[in-house]
Design a protein that fits this description.
Blueprint lengths: L3 H9 L11 E13 L8 E10 L3 E13 L6 E13 L2 E14 L2 E8 L12 E9 L2 E9 L7
Antiparallel strand pairs: 1-2, 1-8, 2-3, 3-4, 4-5, 5-6, 7-8
Length: about 150
Amino acid sequence: MPLLLPLFLLSLQAPAPQPPAPPVHATGPFEVKVEPAKEELGPGLGRMFLDKAFHGDLEAAGKGQMLTAATDTKGSAGYVAMERVTGSLKGRKGSFVLQHSGTMAHGSFQLSVTVVPDSGTEGLQGLAGKMAITITGGKHFYDFEYTLPEAAAK
């Protein structure tokens, strides 16, 4: 009888959690319009409004604001931005927020664009991921690596 109790308790334990789904990629081009805000923030500081149109796997509009800091050293600067993206990601409608952080040191650029946790709405609830942005021949392109629970599709 003593052996049966531990076996019974083991049978009551929750099943092992499933490993997270592998990330999926969404790609395509986008256009961006940047409009400077009118107020002065001080030497080298700026604030701008972002208006984007994403195409390809992400058919959406992005609206946001960006803060910039330029330096006296050519090729060195920084920016942060928050952007709400609203539309359809591979057919799933909703919105989410991207957080940008970029620095340029002597022409070497580092950029981090990530989904703000729990910012997904409607069919994009639970969205997590990061976006890479490239500029080729003056045109902008994104590569969005993300995960999205199946439950959000329901």
